[in-house]
Amino acid sequence: MKIILCGSIKGGCRKTGTAVFLFLALAHRGRSALLVDVDHNNNAGDFFLRDTDPDEMEARNVITGKMKPAAAVYRSPLGVDVLPATPTLSGIGYDLTQDPGALLRFPAALRRLDHDYAVIDSPPAVGFELRAGIYSADIGLAPVALARWTVQGFKLLRREFDLAAETVGRAATLRALPSICTEKEALAFREISAWTLTNSSIIKSGRIKTATHYGTALKEGTRPWSDFEALTAEETL
User: Fold this and answer.
1) How confident is the model over 96-154, as pLDDT tens digits?
2) pLDDT band, residue 25 (cuts 50/70/90)
């Protein structure tokens, strides 16, 4: 299994949308993929499981280690596998900071699942949930927009990746992904030396916002669909 973390310390960069549509693009290419939501807001999980009973999802929370991931995976109406989060994860994550071994048990449990890829959507803050995703990741994708504090947010994320690499002795690849930007802005990102960028950019489009709102896949052949397809074809993925 290859595990991709979509993470950002800076909000407003369409982190969750990146996780969702990258995940769907991988599935479209015939990859066996799993979406893992470790953000207590559950926006990524809710995209796929809007009609699922919240109490049932609470009972099947996997990040605590009390339930095996295979028992907590949902098959969504779009025909893809999802591990959702729930709001109580915010409290559970705090408790798990007292259990350092949980950071190692979570990735080990994920890798026992039979998928080609797992795409993790993490919260936009440093805490147990983000670190659990980083410890799991082979690849980190950080959506970035031309906004104040974006570079500083990326540096904080890179620091967390470096600390995880020191702990486990394995460095994940971290790339910045130009997101919600114009073609001109996508070029401007390449003049910034603070990061290594993906070759692909996700150009701003109302289609992404609409698809996110209604919980639907991007229409094949549209520009946003093509952008995510190009991202899945990159060598690092």
Assistant:
1) 566 667 777 888 888 888 899 999 999 888 888 898 899 999 999 999 988 777 888 89
2) very high
E strands present in the chain: 2-6, 33-37, 74-75, 81-83, 117-121, 139-144, 173-178
Q: Please tell me whether residue 178 adopts helix, strand or coil conformation.
A: strand
CA 125 from centroid of its chain's CA atoms: 13
Strands 173-178 and 74-75: unpaired
Buried-exposed string 165-201: b where 16+ CB fall within 10 A, e elsewhere: eeeeeeebebbbbbbbbeeebbeebeeeeebebbebb
All domains of the chain in start order, with CATH: 2-232 (3.40.50.300)
| pLDDT classification of 63: cutoffs 50, 70, 90 | low
The alpha carbons of the chain give a radius of gyration, in whole angstroms, of: 17
Q: Average pLDDT for residues 157-172, to the nearest whole number?
A: 90
